[in-house]
Amino acid sequence: MQNIAFTLLALFSAVVLTQPSVTGAVLLLFLIIALATSLIFERRTFCRYLCPVGGFIGLYAQVAPVEMRVKDPAVCAGHTQKSCYTGSVDGYGCPWLVYPGTLTKNINCGLCLECLRTCTRDNVAFNLRSFGADLQQSTGRRLDEAFKAFIMLGAALIYSAVMLGPWGTLKLAAYSIGTAEWLVYALTLLGLIYVILPGAFLLAVAAGRILTQSNQTLKKSFVSFAYVLVPLGLMAWIAFSLSFVFASLSYLWPTLSDPLGWGWNLLGTVHVEWQPYLMSLVPFLQAGVLIGGLWWACVTARRIAREVTPPAAAEKQSGRRSLLQALPVMGFCFVITVGLMGLLIG
Questions:
Q1: Taking CA atoms, which of 171, 172, 198, 301 is between 20 and 30 Å from 17?
Q2: pTM for the full model?
Q3: CB atoms within 10 A of CB 36
Q4: Is the CA virtual torsion 39, 41, 47, 49 positive or negative?
Q5: Which pLDDT tens digit goes with each residue over 87-102?
Q6: How far is C-alpha 73 from the chain's CA centre?
Q7: Which of these, 306, 296, 304, lies nearest to 334 by C-alpha position?
Q8: 341 burial level (CB within 10 Å; 0-12, 13-18, 19+)
């Protein structure tokens, strides 16, 4: 449902992101749906299953350098009350409907810290870890999460083309909701994220299987390698955001000085005029971020390839086969990166 919700939001994003009245209406709609959902279902069902923002955050939380995990699963197994899930006098049970004793990935964890408060055995810890630790897990990979990666990556491509590209016709179509031009734009977006990107990626995965004669099913290989797109997509969004951050940063000073628009001048910066910052450096920063994302994706692809490639008699031969399995996927990521550079940097 999160995938569908984000897709619907993406179809109208050109207007939602640029017209304050529409932005407010959408946020109000989120609030109404969340309240209505809470009257029917328990806890934060909206956040877990429906909220498009939750899907975006959850997907990229897998690369975060922090996590909430239990210290010793055996302690959880012997604790019949399960206060981390059911709640206690110290707090609520997990609002995201997750049992911390079996939590292995960040994607469904809201990091609200309730389990840290409610665990009566002091068996929950907030840990530091390596970036992208969840991507290295060979279990728990799902097709809906794989398509979430395609949706987020495709949205980054479309947003870059609409908001930063030179095509006036495309911009007009994205803003002209309800017209024939917008319908073509909507079908193009849907085709990109649900057909073109997954189809091209499927061909890349299939090519790798043919090169290595992998005995893993095509579906399982497709789902496994789709997690390569998580770091690639995250870096794409960061590069996209850099186009606006430095251009709009100067708006921060008058806003901080008069946050409610009531004529205040708390910091003496209310009259600071708009000016873009460091715009000459933005293309270099974007290129660095995108290249970093490509490198990260390739490293992840190589690790996943080692999991799905049939073992060879010699370690050196096995390494070559895993590289062959990953190469087409790396090529896919390279093409996407070049496309993003063209859209963002020109």
A1: 198
A2: 0.90
A3: 11
A4: negative
A5: 988 889 999 999 999 9
A6: 29
A7: 296
A8: middle
